[in-house]
Fold this sequence. Notes:
Transcription Regulator spoIIAA; 43% helix; 5-stranded mixed beta sheet
Amino acid sequence: MIEICPESDGATLAVVASDKLTADDYEVVFMPALEERIERFGRARAVIAFDDDFHGWELGALWDDAKFGLKHRNDFERIAVVGAPRWVEWSAKVGELFMHGEVKAFNPTEYVDAVLWAKS
Length: 120
């Protein structure tokens, strides 16, 4: 499940991921919100926080994530990854090699710092 957080503002989209992410999470919530910010501001900033019960993606969601990332690889200024499992942090760092924006990992207790960094 992906939920949009109240810290979302302007070009910054803050979300929390929990349980297992589905294609609907991407197609109905995440991608439209990011695309609106990209269209409106040119480039987006994202804060993606992972809840303790997060345990991955369904295949359709993983495919949506990959397609979206390739399509918009030049459309992000900053992506903060908060409380992610190590394998997600490594994946984000690898993804950074293919995009122009910055990616930074934060501990679960550093959510506020992550939002401030993404918005700065």
